[in-house]
C-alpha cells in the first residue's frame, strides 16, 4: 500500500453536527422546510449538489447563493472553534511518516484550507468534491486524490465515517477503514464491507 486518503468531516473534525445545524438554520431563515431525510442525503454531496438540494427544500435563493451563505456561516463557526477530533492531527502526522497522505472531502476548499492552517498539517494533496463532476457516493473525489498523488487507487487506504463516504471509497477500489460517526451512524450493510475502527487514533496501529 502506498497512500492513506482521509475524509475530513467526521474523521478529522467533528463537524457533521455543525454542518447540520448551520444548514437547518439557514434553510429556515430563507423559506425552506427541513425534511427527515435531509441530513443524511446531504452528507457527501459536493457544494453545488447540496446548494441545489437546499433550493429543493424551498430555500428562496439560487443554489450558488445558498451554498455561499452556508459556507460563510461555517467559516464563522470554525473561526470561533475548530472542532478537531482528539488525536486526529497527531494521527495524520504519524501516518504521513510511513505513507503518502491526502484529503478527499466534500467540504469546500476554503474550509479544508482552514483546517490545514489551524493544525499546521503538511498534506500535499487536498481535494474538494466541489471540483469534481459528482460528490460522494460517487468515487470521483477519491480517484482525483489518488491521481494527484500519482498512486493506483488499489494501493490506497481510505478513512471514512459516513455511508456515502464509505460507498465512494469502495467504488474507487480502495481498502476502506471506517471510523463510524456516532451522531449519524453509517448503514450496517455498508459497514459490513469494511474494517471498522473505534477511533481515528487507532489508525496507525491498524496500518501496521
Automatic annotation (TrEMBL):
List, alphabetically, the InterPro entries matched. HAD-like_sf, HAD-SF_hydro_IA, HAD_sf, PGP-like_dom2
Which Pfam families does its entry note? Hydrolase
SUPFAM superfamilies on file: HAD-like (SSF56784)
From which domain of life does this come? Bacteria
Which PANTHER family did the record assign?
Answer: 2-DEOXYGLUCOSE-6-PHOSPHATE PHOSPHATASE 2, PSEUDOURIDINE-5'-PHOSPHATASE
Q: What is this protein called?
A: HAD family phosphatase
Amino acid at each position: 500500500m502506498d497512500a492513506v486518503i482521509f475524509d475530513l468531516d467526521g474523521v478529522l473534525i467533528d463537524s457533521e453536527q455543525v454542518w447540520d445545524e448551520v444548514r437547518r438554520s439557514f434553510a429556515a431563515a430563507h423559506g425552506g422546510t427541513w425534511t427527515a431525510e435531509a441530513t443524511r442525503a446531504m452528507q457527501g454531496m459536493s457544494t453545488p449538489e447540496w446548494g441545489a438540494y437546499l433550493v429543493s427544500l424551498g430555500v428562496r435563493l439560487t443554489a450558488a447563493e445558498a451554498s455561499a451563505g452556508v459556507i460563510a456561516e461555517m467559516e464563522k463557526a470554525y473561526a470561533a472553534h475548530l472542532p478537531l477530533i482528539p488525536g486526529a492531527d497527531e494521527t495524520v502526522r504519524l501516518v504521513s511518516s510511513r505513507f503518502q497522505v491526502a484529503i478527499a472531502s466534500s467540504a469546500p476548499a476554503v474550509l479544508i484550507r482552514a483546517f490545514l492552517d489551524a493544525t499546521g498539517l503538511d498534506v500535499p494533496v487536498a481535494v474538494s468534491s466541489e471540483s469534481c463532476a459528482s460528490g460522494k457516493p460517487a468515487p470521483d473525489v477519491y480517484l482525483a486524490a489518488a491521481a494527484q498523488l500519482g498512486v493506483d487507487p488499489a494501493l490506497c487506504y481510505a478513512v471514512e465515517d459516513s455511508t456515502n463516504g464509505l460507498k465512494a471509497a469502495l467504488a474507487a477500489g480502495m481498502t476502506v477503514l471506517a471510523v463510524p460517526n456516532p451522531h449519524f451512524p453509517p448503514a450496517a450493510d455498508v459497514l459490513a464491507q469494511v474494517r471498522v475502527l473505534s477511533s481515528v487514533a487507532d489508525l496507525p496501529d491498524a496500518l501496521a
